[in-house]
Amino acid sequence: MATTFKRRTTNKATAASAAKRTSLVGLPGTKPCFGGATQTSSGLRDLDAILGGGHPLGSAILVEEDRWTNSLASTIVRYWCAEAVAQNHHLLVPALEEESTNPFLSTDDDSATGNRSDIDNLRDSLPRNLHWDKQHAAQGDEHDVKAWEAPLTEATPNQEELDEFDEEEGGDMITELGSSKNINTQQTQQNQSSNIYCHSYDLSGRLSQQLERMGKPNLEQLFHTFPIQQSMDQPFPSRRIYQAILTRLQECRSNNRAVIRLLLHHLDPEILCKVLPLLLAQIRLQHVPVVVLVCLQPWKSTCTKAKTILRRHADVVLQTEGFSGRSHFPPPSELRHLQGLLLPRKVSTATAATAIGGGHYADITVGKRPNSNIFGIKRDRRKLHTVLLHIPPQEQIMDEGRPL
């Protein structure tokens, strides 16, 4: 019986895609994970744990705000944007501006979705980077750090020993030796600070003031907001928005080798449901190091179909629910220390990870999936934490000042 054998050859397209995947390795602020994917941090360690380690390149996260407590979702967005500034990532935020020939019809209402004033308020509210304060305190810039940051400004034991050694012994040789050691310690600290995957932030501080005091570029130069003119009589507004965003992505990719973070903040769901699938298709086809975060206000749109399309194409869907709107049905007494709930409705990054470079281990290993489908949000003056909901011990359960 005659048989034919065909020599196995490598596909050119497969080799080209493999070369593009290897170019994503080693980008600042990223780390490889199981399955060949590359991740970047969301700025919040608790959220990274829910996502299986971070935000994979080529994926989109949809965050839905609560109507009565929108500060919970906005805090997640602030962490995400602050991490982009800390990692020197390209942060792109499109702002819609309506073209109006009649000056009496123009309005500066802050409630408009995706306008410049809303984005400027978000930029000015980015939290303070505590790792930068610790780094400058270790370098001897304690006068630039506030008094309430004293726990982070304490020098390490190695630095204290070097300082005492220089003061007690003296001499040119010892001074040169101590200065060389100080230089080496500063270099190691700078290398450690540059290799930080997820920074720590203080919500009570402002990143803009910190950058100004440190002599770094202005936050307006790092927070790239570009306007998109939206005409009322334009037949296809989604096409114009898609082309404007795609042009910006190509410019950032050609200028510098860094991760691009695209924030779609409070845009119209009817337009966004057409733009997001096209953007994700181009990003995954060209292997562009882009992560997308969509912040949506679902109560402002009555189009259920558009919101369903967005949830379907997003790799992660997070819904926040505050307790402020529960006047008739308040939360139980066990949740009095929480301000709201975080509901991960969808955590599936297999599509994006497969397109970029393999499967995401959160979808492969059952043990790496989210521990629960509901988390509690604990928000204080300086931090935001997500905790698992559990029944506290019997002696800690109090009802109107009396144990149950």
Automatic annotation (TrEMBL):
Pfam families: PAXNEB (PF05625). Residues 11-20 have a biased composition (Low complexity). The keyword Cytoplasm applies. Residues 1-10 have a biased composition (Basic residues). It comes from the Eukaryota. Residues 1-20, 101-122 are annotated as: Disordered. One of its GO terms (biological process) is tRNA wobble uridine modification. Pathway: tRNA modification; 5-methoxycarbonylmethyl-2-thiouridine-tRNA biosynthesis. Keywords: Cytoplasm, Nucleus, tRNA processing. Belongs to the ELP4 family. This is Elongator complex protein 4. It comes from Seminavis robusta.
